[in-house]
Amino acid sequence: MRITNATIRAVNGLTARWARAVSDGTVFSAAGVWPLLTFLADGAGGAARAELAEAVGLPAGEAAAAGRELLAGLREMRGLDSALGLWTERTLELREEWEAGLPAEAHGVLTGRPEADATALDAWVRKHTDGRISRLPVGLGRSTELVVASALALRTEWFRAFTDGFLEPCAGPWRDRTLHGLHRDTALLDRVGVADTPNGTVTELKVLGTTGIDVHLLLGEERMSPGQVLGAGVDVLARRLATVPGHDLPYGEAGPGLRVARERSTVPRPPSLDVRTVAFDLCAYHDLLDLHELFGLGSAKDDLRPHFPGISDRPLCVGAARQSATAVFGALGFRAAAATAVTGVAAGVPDLRHVTTTIEAVFDRPFGFLALHRTSRLVLAAGWVTEPKPFEEDGDGARALP
Description:
By secondary structure, this protein is of the alpha+beta class. It folds into 2 domains: 5-154 and 285-346, 2-Layer Sandwich (Antithrombin, Chain I, domain 2); 188-271, no CATH class. The protein is built from 8 helices and 17 strands. A 6-stranded mixed sheet has the order 2-1-3-15-14-13, with helices on both faces. It has a 4-stranded antiparallel sheet with strand order 8-7-6-9, covered by helices on one side. A hairpin with a 6-residue loop joins β16 and β17 (379-385).
């Protein structure tokens, strides 16, 4: 299934905005978060609906269809495994139109036993991330009524492998360190290019993979922030910024980390692109509520009122939203995985048009009793309880009362 340009722009736009919050080494997947936000937007109301729509980058009424489109498109990509899961507490009734918008195989049930539920969902995460992420990134409790999660794992091998070696930078923050270096050369000069952005110059190197998944390495000027460099890469993909390809670059220092030189050779040889970089292995954990404005979750996390009337009649708010992500870049290829989950918990109170009285009676310490004849009120037996009978599983589905 083809993913529309509107959806691509929306997901990439979230990538660029998330990048602005980056200040240290990390890995994240907007594609793992975005479909979850679309389904939340579809079921949200009030301020939460407007905020989620803004984060998604589409009108709330169009969000779920776009989310389904993205998931279908991801499933058809070579080298990429993706899945969406929904689990609800047994008594939580979902609105049919909202549930129908999710993949049919996605819906599971929470047993109400947090440890058992966590074990099951952790297994789901491992299965759909090729074992690279071992646990669901959110915790589960007895108050958890809904979990919606996505998982993805991508892998690709390079058309041309790098050669392993070592790299010892003579300047910059890695100076005097011996690093795991990667080297290769190619005659394809257009694999590298330079983009001139409002914030500075960025060098882009394309490393192509055999599954149709590529990795673009981006190097900006030293004064540029991670968000500015990553944002430039997104703008290049969207063709909002043009790059000057390698075969058109001027001699000399043509861009960050890039030098073009005319060299003498003893034999005729074509122009070549010589690449040196480093291997990396990253893992990161993101609490999306720390960036609630970015993800449109500011109102949705407020537990004083319900925010998702389109999901269920039961009042719900967002209890937690987190992502775990990994990425490995080496001589032979690239591997990455992400697991993202959002939990829903009870919020607010129902519409208070009726009045009722609730009385709790708790007998959890020694107590007495009287047994009597109703008409005559004759006491037939009396007693005092100090040793209650212990609970025993009797095999017929009995369970302790809540």
